[in-house]
Design brief:
With 151 residues, the protein is mostly beta strands. It has 1 helix and 12 strands. β7 and β8 form a beta hairpin. The model has no long low-confidence stretch (mean pLDDT 96).
Length: 151
């Protein structure tokens, strides 16, 4: 997992061949862009623009992906994201190739959590179980872009 500010994205461009184009797109993102899917570099690098309300931790799912990694960027609002190594979790819903997602039961011991707020991003790879969308006190609105990059 990588956690940093979008202004520092140039420091991470060598991590994956798709990162330079993904970060250029994310740096030039216009917050009035409607929710939906946008190809950045063909179907292998896709941005998903989404607006939603954060919710209590016990209502949010733990997930991982196998085919794609995530770059999650907050443009407005803030949320906690739970983090754990997938090997420490029990599978709740087996992997779905159509959704490229596997879901897990909450950890039996407290997992790590971090605050993702406007101007920051997190990168998740297949071993990085994550629980996005957790409220920071009260439910609140979020504008987030998730870039799916093919591994």
């Amino acid at each position: 997992m990588i956690l940093d500010l979008l202004g520092h994205s140039h420091l991470h461009e060598e991590v994956h061949p798709s990162f330079p184009k993904a970060f250029v797109w994310l740096q030039s993102f216009d917050p009035v862009t409607p929710d939906g899917r946008y190809e950045i570099d063909g179907p292998g690098v896709v941005a998903i623009v989404q607006r939603y309300e954060t919710a209590p931790q016990d209502t949010k799912k733990w997930e991982t992906h196998r085919v794609h990694g995530d770059i999650q960027v907050i443009y407005s609002g803030e949320e906690f994201i739970g983090y754990a190594n997938r090997d420490e979790l029990s599978v709740k819903t087996p992997y779905s190739p159509e959704k490229d997602a596997e879901f897990y039961s909450p950890p039996s011991v407290p997992a790590s959590a971090f605050l993702l707020k406007a101007g920051s991003f997190a990168v998740f790879l297949p071993h990085d179980a994550h629980q996005p969308g957790v409220m920071t006190g009260q439910p609140g609105p979020i504008l987030k872009v998730v870039v799916k990059f093919r591994l």
